[in-house]
């Protein structure tokens, strides 16, 4: 059984094929970073147009790499949300049109569920129930996951997502887009002892996050320096990353304590962060799981896999084209 996955929610076109026996048999990714980087962020209209150019040729290529034809595909999974509406509509339109032509079902997949499930694509996956921290450019959420498709929101960011804060701080420091990897790279040369930034909302009880004040703190620090040097930027990047990672560590510890669970899954773009993985790995009392590095940021593989899991449990959508730019994960159809 083979499921093809199409990801077009933001600035990456991803197409992959998941085979029930052989796992990933094709996994293609095209990043639009070169298109958007001179604007310091994603331009939605340009993203949609580029997905139109890339998706169909990538599907043909994926079939070729997997050594199969359209007749071997049992279902088509596509990202139905959350994400940029125009970009989502490209993937949805292509998926539904192909579904009609190939006479197979098309399944709308929740992007964040796919991020989460990417962490379970390993020989020794976590067993439900577990706590998940979903940290991407658009989301920072702590979820209690009792079973596949059964998620309870424990806490989330009340303003910027962690990845968004990385991107905005990178912009302030004159670094490139996306900011996460740039900050992580520079932080390695930073002097950890020079600045200590606040750990927002850790003094109060609760599992919500807020990264907007931390961003302002960085801006004020930059403004207080007369002529900002390379070393200043590295020191600030280091202090900022430490503050985000430490805040996440504290909140994850609280979520595990509150739920009484002993497994933590981290997923989404920010879960690629080495410092975050290292700090959480050093903590005691729980097992940590995260996706392979290539499966942390957006990709088609996670959509194909999430689609496969829903397909075998009987999800079948109608052929009308609808996407959900905003889509709380706890509103997902239970399987
Ligand atoms: O999951 P993702 O690819 O897209 C969304 O669903 O949003 O996440 C992208 C985010 C960006 O904000 C990017 O700066 C951040 O993930 N990111 C990182 C790292 N790699 C990507 N943040 C911190 N450290 C990294 N190594
Ligand atoms: Zn994502």
Provide the structure class.
alpha/beta
Assign the CATH topology of the largest domain.
Nucleotidyltransferase, domain 5
Q: Which compounds are bound in this model?
A: 5'-O-[(R)-(carboxyoxy)(hydroxy)phosphoryl]adenosine, zinc ion
Q: Could you tell me the radius of gyration in angstroms?
A: 20 Å
In the CATH hierarchy, the architecture of the largest domain is: 2-Layer Sandwich
Q: Can you give the mean pLDDT?
A: 97
Question: Can you tell me the residue ranges where pLDDT is under 50 for at least 5 consecutive residues?
Answer: none
Strand count, sense and closure of the main sheet? 5 strands, mixed
Summarize the structure.
The protein has helices spanning 33-36, 44-66, 85-102, 111-118, 162-172, 179-187, 212-224, 230-259, 274-282, 301-312; strands spanning 2-7, 12-19, 23-31, 75-81, 106-110, 130-135, 140-147, 150-156, 263-267, 287-289.
Task: Write up what this structure looks like.
This protein is an alpha/beta fold. It folds into two domains: 152 residues, 2-Layer Sandwich (Nucleotidyltransferase, domain 5), CATH 3.30.420; 163 residues, 2-Layer Sandwich (Nucleotidyltransferase, domain 5). The protein is 41% helix and 19% strand. The protein is built from ten helices and ten strands. The strands form two sheets. Strands 3-2-1-4-5 form a five-stranded mixed β-sheet, with helices on both faces. The model has no long low-confidence stretch (mean pLDDT 97). The structure holds 5'-O-[(R)-(carboxyoxy)(hydroxy)phosphoryl]adenosine and zinc ion. 5'-O-[(R)-(carboxyoxy)(hydroxy)phosphoryl]adenosine (KG4) binds next to helix 5 and helix 6.
